[in-house]
Amino acid sequence: MRIGLVIVLWISSFNLNAQVKVEFQLCYKEQLVHLNDTIINPLTQDEWVLNTFKFYVSDFEILNEKQESISSDLTRFHLVDFENTQSTSWNLKDKQNNREVIRFGFGIDSLTNVSGAFGGGLDPVNGMYWTWQSGYINCKIEGYSSKSGAKDHSFEYHLGGYSGKQNAFRTILLPVKTADSLVVQLDLEHFLNSTNFQEVHHIMSPSQSSLNFVELLSKSFKL
Predict the structure, then answer these.
(1) Regarding beta strands 19-28 and 182-187, do their DSSP bridges make them parallel or antiparallel, or are they unpaired?
(2) Grouped pLDDT means (10 residues each) for the chain, 223 residues
(3) Which one of 2, 30, 122, 134 has the minimum C-beta count within 10 Å?
(4) Domain enclosing residue 192, as ranges
């Protein structure tokens, strides 16, 4: 009886201390993409090169079938910066293994935005804070496109906004398919193929175009 109790306690302790790795990746047509790669649409021969791609992930958690949180993340806000590979993955404390759904915020919520600048991943030194309007950039994408209307074929998309109809924060829910690791891919196919780079090549403030891009990106996450 005592041995059985020890085993149960050991298993319980193991579950409480278990961890799962969370990783974010960029892809195009299910192929991994890295910064400075040349991405080509095989149908149109359009080309893109990304030299900056970073966004905020907030309140990442795992839910069970009852929609109860079964994970614990000591860091509320992660700046996923594909120029810094260490920022694209982290370990999450996982209380159980009956994972059903992951949930996270794409961007920074309005309450945090109106609370001023913070440190850590939210430090303005990371280049993700609009000092002129006191708000965070949820997602920053910069690079070059063969179809860009800019003279140098560049594009810059600084996507954000937190007030009223300009709120660019989105909650992402994805069903869990594996128990080993959580690899979240942001598939750029729809975003790149449907964006009119000729007309819209620079977004530097909250706008309807910014919201349209946020909608495209928020629907492009998959697990």
Answers:
(1) parallel
(2) 46 60 95 97 94 97 90 90 96 81 95 82 91 86 96 97 92 86 94 95 93 96 95
(3) 2
(4) 19-222
Please give the structure tokens belonging to residue 106.
């794409």
Q: Does residue 9 lie in a domain region? A: no
Number of domains forming the structure of the chain = 1
Chain position carrying tokens 């970073």? 54
pLDDT score of 141: 98
pTM: 0.89
How far is it, in rounded angstroms, from Cα 47 to Cα 19? 39
12: in domain: no
Instruction: Note whether residue 14 is domain-resident.
Output: no
The closest of 61, 88, 55 to 191, measured between CA atoms, is: 55
Q: Give which of 156, 150, 145 is closest to 210, Cα–Cα.
A: 156
CA distance linking residue 169 with residue 173, whole number of Å: 13
Residue 181, SS3 per DSSP = coil
